[in-house]
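If it is no trouble, might I ask you for a protein's amino acid sequence along with its backbone structure tokens?
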Amino acid sequence: MYFVTKEFTFDAAHNLVNYHGKCEKLHGHTYRVQITVSGEVDDEDMVIDFLELKEIARREAIDLLDHSYLNDIIPQPSAENIARWIFKRIEESLKGPSRELYEIAVWETPTSFVRYREKTL
């Protein structure tokens, strides 16, 4: 089994309305996202072409989030909810005969991130 990962960044603002602390106020981040697809190689010896992964991720999720107010897109846009939202947005488009979306990782700061998977190996 192979794991193919592509990394993205986007800038966005949010506030956490169900949180009591500094993050309940409007603020922004430069988010870092890693999208990982798992599977076996095809007849071209690839799990997925990096270009295809990039196009799907940008079209279905990253470009929608970039330079946005996340609360207009994701209720309570915590890093956890952002990761799950991205997963749900791109899961079907990445599915192939011998591949599937494995994991989304979202960094809110350079030292703080979450990973989201729907199933384990």
Q: What stands out?
A: The chain has one domain: 2-116. The CA atoms of residues 110 and 117 lie 21 Å apart.
